[in-house]
Design a protein that fits this description.
Layout: H1 2-38, H2 55-61, H3 67-77, E1 81-88, E2 109-113, E3 124-132, E4 138-141, H4 143-146, E5 149-155, E6 161-170, E7 175-180, E8 204-209, E9 217-232, E10 241-249, E11 261-263, E12 269-276, E13 287-291, H5 292-305, E14 311-312, E15 315-319, H6 322-327, E16 337-342, H7 347-351, E17 358-362, E18 365-366, H8 370-380, E19 386-393, E20 396-403, E21 405-406, H9 410-421, H10 427-440, E22 449-457, E23 460-469, E24 472-479, E25 485-490
Antiparallel strand pairs: 1-3, 1-5, 2-3, 3-4, 4-7, 5-6, 6-7, 8-9, 8-11, 9-10, 10-13, 11-12, 12-13, 14-21, 15-16, 16-17, 17-18, 17-19, 19-20, 22-23, 23-24, 24-25
Length: 491
C-alpha cells in the first residue's frame, strides 16, 4: 500500500512540474508578445516572437505616454489655451473664413445664433481656439477663425473673458494674431514653442481646444505624415500658393479646434490645428496642423510689421508622377518638379526658366517633389536671396541662378474687386482651379474628364466641378467670385 501511494505521489509531483513548466513558458511567451505589440515595428524587427527583445525595443515600448504624463501635460498646458467666440456680420458665415484655394474643411465651429440675441438682433456666431503667445497680450489663432468677425471674445480656462482685436492676419498661412488686455487676477501663461524639425511620423501628439464648444478638451494621436503641402492664397487670377511642411495627424480635430495648439509630449507647440479632410465636417482621422516653423516666422512679422514677406519664384508646376512623365515624354522615374507655367516678369522668367523644364535641385539640395521646392523657398530663402536651380531641359542638365522675389498681393486685391463688382470667374478658370486642388492635395494624380455647373451652395454663388481620373471621381465646390475651394470630395 505504501508503495502504491508513493507512486501516486511521484506521478502527481511530475504532473505539477510539467504544468508549471508549460505555464511558465506560456507566460513568458505572452509577455514577449506584449512587449512586441507595444513596440514600434521596424523593417529589421524579427517576425517571430521573442522572449528577450533587444534593448531598443524595450526603450521604444517605454515611450508610450502614461496616464500621469498626459494628465500633467493637460494641467500645464490648458491655462495657455483659449476659446475664441466671434460674431459675424449678417451677410457672412464661417464658411467665408476658409483660406483661398484650400481643398479641405476647416474645423471652425458654427454655433448658429448667439444665446443672448433677440429676434431683431440675431447674428451668426462661431467658435474656435487659440493659445497665449507672449506676455504682451497676444494670442495666435487661425485667420479663418477671426476673418469677417464683427466682435471677438476670448474665454480663458478659469471662466474669465476679454474682448479682443485683430492685430494682423495672414490668409496665405491661415494665421492671425489677436490681442487682449488680460483680466486682473488671471495667471497669464504663454505657451512654449517646440524647436522645428523635432517631429517624426509615429510621434505622439496632443490637441487641446474647444471642439463643438466643449472647452479645454484634449485628444491624443500620432503624427501620420510630415511634409504635406496645401494650396492657400487667392486663385481668382490663376495664381495660387502652397503652405509647406504641413503636419498630418490622426489626433482628433473637430469643429472648434481651429487655431488651437498641437503639442508634443513635452507640452510644446509643434503646430496650429487648422483643417481636416472630411466629407462629414468632423474628424475622420486625417487632420492637418500648420508647423511651428511657419508660426515662428509669420507670427512675429504680423505683430511687428502687420504682414509677412514670402519668397516668390513665379512658376506653376507639379510633382512628376507616372502619368505626368508619360504625358510630357519624360524618362521613367524622373523625379522633380515639372514646370507647367512661368509667370511673365517673375524671378524664374527673368532667370531663363522655361515651360517644360524639370527642377531637380535648389541650393544644392535635391528636389524630388513639389513640396521639397516650396519648403526650401520658405525655410531657407527670403526676397532678394540668390539661389541656384538645378534644371533638366530635354537631355541637358544646367544650373540656373535666380534672384528670389517677393510674393505679389495683386491676387488678393483682385478677388475682393471681383466680389464687389459681381464679376464671376469663368468655367475654364473654375476647372483649372479644381484640377490644381486635387493635384496639389495629392488626391488625384491625373484628370481624364471635367465638367462644371453654376450652383448655390450654403447661400454662396459657386461652381461645382466634377472630375474623373485614376479610377476616382472628385467633386470640387469653388466660390464663383473669389475662386476659393469651399469643399473637396474624392471617392
Amino acid at each position: 500500500m505504501q508503495s502504491t501511494n508513493k507512486r501516486y505521489y511521484i506521478y502527481f509531483g511530475a504532473a505539477i512540474l510539467i504544468l508549471a513548466l508549460v505555464f511558465g513558458a506560456a507566460t513568458t511567451m505572452w509577455d514577449g508578445f506584449g512587449i512586441l505589440w507595444a513596440a514600434q515595428k521596424t523593417q529589421d524587427a524579427p517576425t517571430q516572437l521573442v522572449t528577450n527583445p533587444p534593448a531598443a525595443l524595450s526603450e521604444i515600448a517605454s515611450l508610450s505616454p502614461s496616464q500621469e504624463l498626459l494628465s500633467q501635460l493637460y494641467e500645464d498646458v490648458s491655462p495657455s489655451v483659449v476659446s475664441i467666440q466671434v460674431t459675424l456680420s449678417p451677410t457672412e458665415s464661417s464658411l467665408q473664413g476658409l483660406p483661398e484655394g484650400f481643398p479641405f474643411q476647416m474645423p471652425f465651429g458654427d454655433q448658429g445664433q448667439g444665446q443672448d440675441s433677440t429676434p431683431d438682433t440675431q447674428l451668426p456666431q462661431a467658435e474656435g481656439s487659440g493659445f497665449i503667445y507672449d506676455m504682451d497680450g497676444h494670442i495666435v489663432t487661425n485667420n479663418h477663425v477671426v476673418e469677417n468677425a464683427t466682435s471677438i471674445v476670448v474665454y480663458f480656462h478659469n471662466g474669465m473673458w476679454a474682448d479682443a482685436e485683430v492685430v494682423a492676419a495672414d490668409p496665405q498661412a491661415d494665421l492671425a494674431v489677436i490681442k487682449v488686455t488680460p483680466p486682473e487676477g488671471l495667471d497669464w501663461k504663454p505657451v512654449t514653442l517646440a524647436a522645428p524639425d523635432t517631429l517624426l511620423p509615429g510621434y505622439y501628439t496632443v490637441a487641446v481646444g474647444s471642439p463643438f464648444g466643449l472647452d479645454e478638451t484634449m485628444t491624443l494621436g500620432v503624427v501620420s505624415a510630415l511634409g504635406r503641402s496645401v494650396p492657400t492664397g487667392d486663385t481668382s487670377s490663376g495664381s495660387s500658393y502652397s503652405l509647406p511642411d504641413v503636419i498630418q495627424t490622426d489626433t482628433a480635430i473637430n469643429p472648434g479646434n481651429s487655431g488651437g495648439p498641437l503639442l508634443n509630449l513635452n507640452g510644446e507647440v509643434v503646430g496650429v490645428n487648422f483643417a481636416i479632410n472630411s466629407t462629414a465636417g468632423s474628424n475622420s482621422g486625417v487632420g492637418f496642423a500648420i508647423p511651428v516653423a511657419v508660426v515662428e516666422k509669420v507670427a512675429p512679422a504680423l505683430i511687428e510689421n502687420g504682414s509677412y514677406d514670402y519668397s516668390y519664384l513665379g512658376i506653376a508646376g507639379q510633382t512628376i508622377t507616372a502619368p505626368v512623365a508619360a504625358q510630357q515624354n519624360l524618362s521613367d522615374n524622373t523625379l522633380g518638379v515639372y514646370v507647367a507655367e512661368v509667370v511673365s516678369g517673375g524671378p524664374a522668367a527673368d532667370a531663363g526658366i522655361q515651360v517644360d523644364d524639370v527642377i531637380v535641385g535648389i541650393g544644392g539640395e535635391k528636389v524630388t517633389q513639389f513640396e521639397d521646392l516650396i519648403s526650401y523657398l520658405f525655410n531657407k530663402t527670403e526676397p532678394g536671396s540668390e539661389v541656384t536651380l538645378n534644371v533638366l531641359r530635354g537631355d541637358k542638365t544646367m544650373d540656373v541662378p535666380v534672384t528670389i522675389g517677393q510674393r505679389p498681393q495683386e491676387a488678393v486685391e483682385t478677388a475682393q474687386q471681383n466680389r464687389d463688382n459681381g464679376k464671376a470667374i469663368s468655367i475654364s478658370e473654375a476647372i483649372k482651379i479644381a484640377k490644381g486642388a486635387v493635384s496639389d492635395s495629392g488626391l488625384m494624380a491625373s484628370v481624364d474628364s471635367a465638367n462644371a455647373k453654376r450652383s448655390t451652395v450654403d447661400g454662396k454663388d459657386a461652381w461645382v466641378v466634377t472630375l474623373s481620373g485614376d479610377n476616382k471621381a472628385a467633386t470640387v465646390t469653388i466660390d464663383a467670385f473669389s475662386g476659393e475651394v469651399l469643399e473637396l470630395d474624392v471617392q
